[in-house]
Amino acid sequence: MLNSKDKNTYFALRLLIDEVNVSKNKICFWIGAGASAWSNYKLWDEIVKTFKKYYTRNESKYDIKHASDIIASYDYPSFFQYCFEVNSKSYNRLLVSEYKVKKTTPIYNRFISTLNKTSPLYIVSTNIDEQLEKNIPHIQTIQNSDIERCVNNIKRDESFICKLHGSVSSIESVVFKKSDYEALIRNDKYLALLQTILSTTTVIFIGYSLGDKYVFDLLKENNKLNSIFDESKHFIITPNLNIILPENVHIIKYDASIYTDHRTPIRVIEEITINQKDRVDTDSNLVSYTETEKRSAHLISDIYPPGTWTSSQTLGLKNEKGISTSMVVGNGISNNELPITQSTAMHDLVVGLLCFDIIYMPLSALSRIHDLLGANIFWAMVKSSSFKFIEWRSLTGIIFPEKKSISNGDIGNFTLYKKDKTEYSLNEIIKKHLKANPGKESEASDLFKLLERNIEIIDTHQEPSVAHSVRGLLQFPSVRKLIGMSEATPINSIPKYLQFPVLRLGNVLKISFACELLGIASTKLDFGSSALASIGFSAPYGKYNADQITSYVLSGSFDTIIGNRFIENPQLLLALIKYRESSLGIKFRQEIFEQLINNRSKEFMASIDAGLKESIDLEIMEKAKGHLAGLLMNENYKERESPIVWNDLEYSTKFLKLWKKRSYNTLLKYCDANKINIYDQCLCGSGEKLKYCCLESLKS
Fold first, then answer.
1. Of 77-91, 297-311, 531-545, which gets the smallest average pLDDT?
2. What is the pLDDT of residues 194-218, one digit of tens each?
């Protein structure tokens, strides 16, 4: 995630987007060792350890103390120079062994796919491995022996990959040790290329490392290049940087504590492709990053049976100074945000039971599920191991400094404790939802114990900080645009009229984290949240575009027909349990899971249709005919470990419009009540006029 604590990061990102949209300069990606690490290549400090271990054991001329002194100064090129001088053959052999072509990883595939969306694609790389050219074979690879060709390619807008430090397949071309760098910096053709690149393109440094620092130091020392940094804006994406850069090299910082694979630079490149006016979209073979083994399990994000339900709460709090504050939790869905009024709760349960071994639901929805099904059927489901529940220990809310505050809200994580400052036990939580009838306490106690065994707890230390992740996502202009937040609104000053869109984004993140942690293969997002799936599920799974998330689409009409049938006759659910336990039902679920994992869309749809006919009478299916929509997917997206996201595509864009309309009307009512003019300062605290800040973003 982008570092929301660094005040200059958002400015630098905005400046980069402006460069993409306004500047005549093309983008050039300077790719360092960090990018190769996505394909499991070692970074410099790890390579040093490999060389040190080998030379210590096998080279009698190797002076351990002298080598250790060099390593301690972090002068790695000098260390490799020393190894070369001790035994050049061993040096070359180790390099070839360490940098041979490797099998690509999911995160590297995502990186390549994202680069391919830029045209023309200019890449200069200081990496000596050959992963880039092997995975982007359709553009020219230019070796450092022929480096002047790059200048001609830039003039002709022709894509290229320039290997500034050579390639391991031609070991004599490799720039790795001190003498190699010194020879390179004296090379007039090399200096001419750098001058062209740094003066005519916007350079984005990715995977910046100590090796690249060495290059920068040499460049800054060279009098011929001192002035060229003043001619164009350049950007470096990094978690931390402890060297002084020229003023026009802007730093976009990210926090690597959540995703230690340093995937955030890829997300920044994706933001660039979103904002490019004339970008070329290409097919991709994206796969998810998570290594969690998926199971035939389905998570229904929430259950709302027919009727009126409260989906948010405002909690009264007091801060350390005794001042009354408030915190808002929940999705806060209102009737005027729903384009359809029918409940899909029963339908979601039926399809989940039919297609998956296990259905997960939030423990917070326990009483609603119990009431929807009735006690007999509910406990039959629990006993059959069909149902499991998730208890999140960490919750997410927006805290406002005062009860009447309209702005200055800040999203945070919190945990509910009892008065003795201990957490509620599962049994205590269950008893808040379900109450035993008089005389049935003992029987209920046994059932509650059974239920406890079917609850998965996600502790605060297991789950990445949702609040921190939301702040990181809100750094991106495209995310703000989606939920109607002005680009000028401070991240720590969420206005009340935007509290629920922000909390809904947090909820999607929470669901995606749970899917990753528990290996859940499928999830159903409700009330328009599916429109945020492309953002929320990109965080843990390394994807961004909506068409790269498979969606099983169910129309509102189909939901209503199936749901109403089971509400009218809940005993049909008992028949469905028997079907689940039959050999046919088990085989069917296995087939569904296999087809989801293998992305066989036509077979998947046919199986769903056939399975519904097996468990639901033909008359109902005939009425539903034509309402089961197709599978939305990228046909080239063959490998996947990420969850399938079920949503109602027909209404997904309508929901977002209704979200914005509600926020817009709430803002207008507040302004009217408090006599605030559209040319007054915006309530979000941006310093902009209301007309050109939140009103404008919510109207779009």
1. 531-545
2. 888 888 888 899 987 645 565 566 5
Q: Which of 630, 653, 676 is the last residue of a domain?
A: 653
CA distance linking residue 398 with residue 414, whole number of Å: 10
Shared domain check, 110 and 35: yes
Based on the fold, state whether residues 348 and 200 are members of the same structural domain.
no
pLDDT in the model for residue 129: 93
Phi, psi of 61 (to 5 degrees): -80, -5
Same domain, 163 and 75: no
Torsion over CA: 499, 500, 503, 508 (sign): negative
H or E stretch including 297? strand 295-300
Confidence label for 598 from pLDDT (cuts 50, 70 and 90): low
For residue range 168-187, what is the model confidence (pLDDT) as tens digits?
999 988 999 999 988 887 88
Average pLDDT over residues 504-531: 82
- Contacts (Cβ under 8 Å, ≥6 apart) of 424: 416, 417, 418
Residue 586 sits in the same domain as residue 637: yes
> With left for phi above 0 and alpha for psi between -120 and 50, is residue 169 left, alpha or beta?
alpha
How many C-beta atoms lie closer than 10 Å to residue 303's C-beta?
Answer: 25
How far apart CA 243 and CA 540 sit, in angstroms, is: 31
Q: HSE-up of 636 (CA within 13 Å, CB side)?
A: 6
Number of domains composing the chain: 3
Q: How many CA within 13 A on the CB side of residue 32?
A: 22
178, 248: one domain: yes
Q: Tell me the two tokens of residue 339.
A: 């384009």
Q: Which of 69, 98, 127 is the last residue of a domain?
A: 98
Average pLDDT, the chain: 78
Domain assignment present for residue 197? The answer is yes
Over residues 421-442, the pLDDT tens digits come to: 899 999 999 999 999 888 888 9
Residue 319, burial from CB neighbour count under 10 angstroms (0-12, 13-18, 19+): exposed
Q: pLDDT for 384-413, tens place per residue?
A: 888 999 999 999 999 998 877 888 898 989
172-186, 313-327, 507-521, 680-694: least confidently modelled range:
313-327
Report pTM.
Answer: 0.62
Cα angle for residues 115, 117, 122 (degrees, 5° grid): 50
Residue 535: its pLDDT value, please? 66
CA 64, 65, 70, 71 torsion: positive or negative?
Answer: positive
Average pLDDT over residues 600-608: 47
**289 domain residue, yes or no:** no
- Within a domain: 426: no
Q: CB-based contacts of 55: which residues, under 8 Å, 6+ apart?
A: 62, 67, 83, 86, 87, 90
DSSP 394: S
Contact 540, 516 (CB under 8 A): yes
* Distance in angstroms (rounded) separating the CA atoms of residues 9 and 6: 6
Residue 141's CATH number: 3.40.50
pLDDT tier for residue 695 given thresholds of 50, 70 and 90 = very high
Is residue 83 located within the same domain as residue 177?
no
DSSP 484: T
Domain assignment of residue 224, given as a range: 7-40+104-275
**Same domain membership, residue 629 and residue 513:** yes
Same domain, 59 and 137: no
Instruction: Please spell the DSSP secondary structure of 256-296, one letter per residue.
Output: TTT-TT--HHHHHHHHHHHH-TT-------------PPPEE
Domain membership of residue 454 (yes or no) is no
Q: Provide the residue count of the chain.
A: 700
User: Mean pLDDT throughout 258-269?
Assistant: 76
Can you tell me the distance from the alpha carbon of 13 to that of 5, in angstroms, rounded to the nearest whole number?
A: 14
**40 exposed, middle or buried (CB, 10 Å; 0-12, 13-18, 19+)?**
exposed
pLDDT tens column, 123-137:
999 999 999 999 999
Asked if 311 and 331 count as a contact pair (C-beta separation under 8 A), the reply is: yes
